[in-house]
Amino acid sequence: MERRKILIIDNEPALLDVFADNLAAKGFEVHVADDGDLGLELVERVRPDLVLLDVRMPRLDGFAVLREIREIDPDVAVLMMSADASEQRARQALDEGATGFITKPVEVDDLVATIEASLSGRKTAER
């Protein structure tokens, strides 16, 4: 069976490393981008099954990146991540086309469960 491809777009290098290492250990093919522009290039080139996308990033914020991702691939699962745990932020993410919303920090096992639920086609909002 082909490994599912995950793209992580976040400007925090430590978080990229931790998530990438743990998701790879769980059997995913992991790609990382430390900004929105590189992330969009990778969406086009890699065609991931799921994108983990941080809301707050320099230059292109997560919502701008999400809108571009939806133009490139309207069907890819996108989980938005933010330390802002407000209901409004989660609703905005879902309203703008995200598959789900994850509040940082998140435990790796919870992240994997949310990814698997998203890949199976269910809307998710992790608190």
Q: Main traits of this protein?
A:
127 residues; alpha/beta; Rossmann fold; six-stranded parallel beta sheet; 5 helices; 44% helix; 22% strand; globular; disordered C terminus
How helix-rich are the residues, as a percent range?
Answer: 40-55%
Q: State the domain count.
A: 1
* Intertermini distance: 31 Å
DSSP summary, beta strand count: 6
Uncertain ranges: 123-127
Tally the helices.
5
The CATH topology assignment is Rossmann fold
Largest sheet: 6 strands, parallel
Written overview of the protein:
With 127 residues, the protein is an alpha/beta fold. It has a single domain (5-126), classed as Rossmann fold. The chain is 44% helix and 22% strand. It has helices spanning 13-25, 36-46, 62-72, 87-95, 108-119; strands at 5-9, 29-33, 50-54, 77-82, 100-103, 124-126. The protein has a six-stranded parallel β-sheet, sandwiched between helices. 34% of the residues are buried.
Describe what is shown at a glance.
The protein is built from five helices and six strands, in the order βαβαβαβαβαβ.
Secondary structure layout plus pairing:
Blueprint: E1 5-9, H1 13-25, E2 29-33, H2 36-46, E3 50-54, H3 62-72, E4 77-82, H4 87-95, E5 100-103, H5 108-119, E6 124-126
Helix pairs in contact: 2-3
